[in-house]
Amino acid sequence: MEKQDGCYLPKTLQQTAFKLDQADLLSEFRQQFYLPEESIYLDGNSLGLLSKPAERAVLSMLDSWRQYAINGWSQGRHPWFQLSEELSRELANWVGADKENVIATGSTTVNLHQLLATFYQPTSQRYKIVATSLDFPSDIYAIQSHLRLHGLEAKDALVLVQSHDGLTVREEDITLAMTDDVSLVLLPSVFYRSGQYLSMPQLAQAARQRGILIGFDLCHSIGIMPHELQSWDVDFAFWCHYKYLNAGPGSVAGLYVHPRHHHRLPGLAGWFGSDKEVQFDMLHDFTPAQGAGRFQIGTPHVLSLAPLLGSLEIFQQAGIQAIRSKSLQLTQFLIDLAETYLSPYGFQIGNPREPERRGGHVCLIHPEAIRICKAMKQVGVIPDYRAPDVVRLAPVPLYTSFTDVLEAVERIIQVMENKSYEAFEKQREVIA
């Protein structure tokens, strides 16, 4: 591709991006984030950027520790003892549930272990778990461990619905796997590689009609698209807060449990799942909290909860509908650019094209993906690599502009034209 006026892309596209940025209702939030200097950050589906409100919330929490010491559990602006419940009131809005059905607690996989320990109760008639061949590995590891705890083998009790193209899975294939011997279905809302969104309402209805419990991993959908877990009749869900919700590396995660299951004792009981009124009675008889709070296990990591306080302030102002609308615009803009200007270099689009089937990131497939990602970083574009051949690009509505997307594609073309990726080994770093 030849350059014109120093650029590979037509100048008219700069005007298009500028107009889109001028009309962007969320552009004001960009200044609330710490953007990497001279870089275009497109890895927010792996780790969201630090915001100024999140930073203030952490500093405020440190100050409460300094000022109140042990009394911080009951004093200050955000007493620690009720902090998880306080955050849950806000989080409920982002998953479409009442506050009693949500709790900020644990980590993603710990919460999944808790939910499997609670809901997976196999019988001789119903003992199988349905997942897919494209699920995030940690979810599969957790499932396999619970099968072993029940004396079952994955080859007999784990049904992995296969992909027809290596990138996506058809809802009808998942439904066909919901046979009479299935106890539980566990699925991602959005696949971590291709960005395909599964129809949660459709699948939850299918499970309910068959008397099967169904849960979802929301890690790649929460904070980027609306959810209505309660009205969709989902049994349980879990998620992280460090991707689109920008709560920081290793931040405390969250879980949801439908109110019809609030009578269940947690499979893994711990003292922070106690009714708050009696928790410090120190009795050996467990009195669980009334709602999803009963599924907490240990003492909350207060300093890892703090950034979420600040981050949710931004989300409350922005609104999830506006975030979803801009996300679809950004990903469509990127897909259109990639299809026209990157496909000549061997890139293929791995996303579903229909907006309603797409999450928040774009999946580009290339046999040299691993080396291309390294070269992209060298020219100031921060992508995400997923084996064996995927470049993930996540334009995040709160801090990514349309001009950013355009410039990122310009720099990718530069990498391909100069073949600068050939200078790198075809081997991933320890962290991809």
TrEMBL record:
Pfam families: KYNU_C. Pyridoxal 5'-phosphate binds at residues 108-109, 136-139, 217, 220, 242, 271, 299. Keywords: Hydrolase, Pyridine nucleotide biosynthesis, Pyridoxal phosphate. InterPro entries: Kynureninase, PyrdxlP-dep_Trfase, PyrdxlP-dep_Trfase_major, PyrdxlP-dep_Trfase_small. Its cofactor is pyridoxal 5'-phosphate. GO terms for cellular component: cytoplasm. The keyword Kinase does not apply. It is an enzyme of class 3 (hydrolase). Gene3D superfamilies: Aspartate Aminotransferase, domain 1, Type I PLP-dependent aspartate aminotransferase-like (Major domain). Its EC number is 3.7.1.3. One of its GO terms (biological process) is quinolinate biosynthetic process. It comes from the Bacteria. Pathway: Cofactor biosynthesis; NAD(+) biosynthesis; quinolinate from L-kynurenine: step 2/3; Amino-acid degradation; L-kynurenine degradation; L-alanine and anthranilate from L-kynurenine: step 1/1. It catalyses: L-kynurenine + H2O = anthranilate + L-alanine + H(+); 3-hydroxy-L-kynurenine + H2O = 3-hydroxyanthranilate + L-alanine + H(+). The modification N6-(pyridoxal phosphate)lysine is found at residue 243. The keyword Glycosyltransferase does not apply. GO terms for molecular function: kynureninase activity; pyridoxal phosphate binding. Belongs to the kynureninase family. Catalyzes the cleavage of L-kynurenine (L-Kyn) and L-3-hydroxykynurenine (L-3OHKyn) into anthranilic acid (AA) and 3-hydroxyanthranilic acid (3-OHAA), respectively. Homodimer. This is Kynureninase.
